[in-house]
Structures are given as C-alpha cells and as structure tokens.
Amino acid sequence: MGGNSAHRVVPIDKVLDARRQHLLAWVECATLVAATAAHRLANCGWARRRLARRWRLGGRRQFQQRDL
Fold this sequence. Notes:
The chain is mostly helical and 68 residues long. It contains 3 helices and no strands. The chain has one domain. It is 93% helix and 0% strand.
C-alpha cells in the first residue's frame, strides 16, 4: 500500500489548505454562474420591459414628490 504511506507523509495543514482553496474555487464558480444567469435574465426582453416599467414608475413617483 504505497499510496497510503504517501498520504501519511503529507501534513494535515497542506490537506486543509488544499481543501480551502478548492472550496474557494467552488464559491467563485458558483458566484460567476449566478451572475451570468442574472445577466441573462436581465437581458431577456420580458424581464427588461418589466424592470423598465418599475423604474419608470419609481421615477414618476420621485418627480411627483419633487413637485410637491
């Protein structure tokens, strides 16, 4: 069992550090995927129209408050 003895030689700190880096890479990847999905949804015509309508309503309310 040469593989097991080789594993024993590796310090636990190095193993934990490798796992931490792996986890960080996963988090980074997940964040990127989520951002890309949100970007695609924002680029969708239906979502864009809905958001634009909401922004316009918000803008009108602000203008009305300013007029008052």
